[in-house]
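WARN no homologs supplied; continuing
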Amino acid sequence: MRSDEKSDEIIELNVGGFSYTTSRMTIMSYPDTMLCKMISGQLPNGLDSKQRIFIDRDGPLFRFILNFLRDKRLNLPENFTEHIQLRQEADFYRI
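OK structure emitted
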């Protein structure tokens, strides 16, 4: 596989029972994160029954983590109240 093909690879994740699909390039955009280390094989990861990478974390909050990786900024809804929980998730993912 050529390196440019690998960067376009689709990554499927199961985070706490919620399915997410993204590109390898999005995950690898922050090389020091736990997600990058999982995708690159530096950290072990489990697979669910559909062969998606399984992460036993808060599924709904993961959307903010993934959007941060995509947009390089944190956008939260005006009525967002889970700041402490989101901080815990960001700490877990080393973001």
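Helices lie at 3-7, 24-28, 34-39, 59-71, 83-92.
OK
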